Amino acid sequence: MLDYSGEPHGVFFLIDSKSFYASVECVARGLDPLKTPLVVMSEQENTNGGLILATSPVAKKEFGLQSNVSRQRDLPQSEDLFVVPPRMNLYIQCNLAINRIFQRYVAPEDLWPYSIDESILDITKSWHLFGQTTLDVAHQIQKAVHDELGIWTTVGIGQNPVQAKLALDLFAKHNDVDRTGRLTYATFPDKIWPITDMTSVWSIADRTAAHLARMNIHSMYDLAHTNPYALRQEMGLAGEQLFALAWGIDRAHPAAPVRVHNRSISNSQVLPRDYKMPDEIELVIKEIGEQVASRLRHHHYQCGVVNLGVGFSYASAEEDGRGGFHGALRIDPTNTNTEIVAALLQIFRRNWENQAVRNLYVSCGRITHDSGQQLSLLDSITTQVKNVDLERTVDEIRHRFGFTKLVYAASKVHGGTAIERASLVGGHNGGNAYD
Fold it and tell me: Exposed, middle or buried: residue 377 (CB in 10 Å: 0-12, 13-18, 19+)?
């Protein structure tokens, strides 16, 4: 056994809202989330045929539907199944309301939203104010969320964040009695080491599990008792992290500031269909490039590198033998639409060979602070200054009145996506939270 005396010994909750999107939709309709078969399915045009984003527990059990795996073609013909579109704005509002409840139990600096349906609470300093045991406090929080918002929650309890995460995924989500799970350094060997389904453990995906199997590591016990130096030599830093995971060690603290070495600003889009015409593809590249440039100006940044990633359609990928291409180009520091878009189009025209395109990705790197405008001696100074002022004026109008209140005419032609994309939240329909 390792000596845990020098490891952090706190009390952490990782709280998950059970089948969050589906539960919110059930509550909005006055239905019981634990008794109603309901799925939230994205729009067909945004996800190549409609993707199921969330399923209620009953829909999973009775119809075998799984979130982010099942599609419209998998839906059974049943009048009992509710199929509803996403309303991302409603889910965001509910998430904020849930986290406001969490703030009654911890200081703001001890609460960290982990995702739209999970939050980490460092309750080390405050749990004793609310109950005799940490489990009592977990039950209080669950009751408050359900009584006020109708959402059921599950709680993983650990002495550090990774223990709380494993307790949530492996135990709390499968506990139908009180929807809680607990792990400590002392219980880790008994509860975690017997696990042989490595992919059921957080952070171990199929490829990592296969890599471990090639090293004759088939259980968490095997992983915990493998030479950590051998893991480091074989898998790099990830090997060290896996060894720590197998022992329930997590020395990171979510409140600690993260030092960003290579800051970048990016945006991407899955196109609503296969784009084959160069004019249509370049139009969307221009729209995404201008959106990234606007974000640079908003944060008072400039970039010195632009990157373009292009993903091919399934048919083109099979024919070409590649899934797409990626290119980068160094430029003089700038945040203007014209220069960024010109660089992106240059990358595209150098690499594209008439393949059908389905995904586009744009990013800007080598970020520096916008300390002034670099003028070109080859163009009129007055014109350059006016162009920058025009772009900033457009940014301000869109900020005050909404993106769609002022759009370029090109975005209205066939193939343009900027107007539709402006109404999406997280790539899906934002919906009306009050429908």
Answer: exposed
What does the alpha-carbon distance between residue 285 and residue 309 come to, in Å, rounded to a whole number? 10
Does 20 reside within a domain?
A: yes
pLDDT tens digit sequence for 1-22: 788 999 999 999 999 999 999 9
One-letter amino acid of 150? G
Side chain identity at residue 412, one-letter code: K
**Residue 198 falls within a domain, yes or no?**
yes
| Range 90-100 average pLDDT | 96
In-domain check, residue 407: yes
Three-state SS for 341? Answer: helix
Contact between residue 112 and residue 253 where contact means Cβ atoms under 8 Å apart = no
pTM over 0.85: no
Strand-pairing partners, residue 324, are 311
> Residue 329: how many CA atoms within 13 Å on its side-chain side?
20
Tell me the pLDDT band of 435, cut-offs 50, 70 and 90: very low
On the question of pLDDT at 47 being above 80, the answer is: no
State the amino acid at position 384 in one-letter form.
Q
Q: What is the average per-residue pLDDT within 396-411?
A: 80
Which residue is listed with tokens 């600003």?
Answer: 265
Give the residue from 212, 246, 280 where a domain finishes: 246
Give me the domain span that covers residue 129.
7-159
Catalytic residue selected from 118, 287, 290, 339? 118
Tally of structural domains, the chain: 3
pLDDT tens figures, 107-144: 999 999 999 999 999 999 999 999 999 999 999 999 99
DSSP H or E run through 197: none
pLDDT value of residue 425: 62
The answer to whether residues 364 and 229 belong to one domain is no
Does residue 434 belong to any structural domain of this protein?
no
For residues 287 and 151, membership in a common domain is answered with no
Q: Say what the pLDDT of residue 326 is.
A: 95
Is 62 one of the catalytic residues? no
Average pLDDT, the chain: 89
Looking at residue 132, its amino acid is Q
User: What would the mean pLDDT of 398-418 be, rounded to a whole number?
Assistant: 78
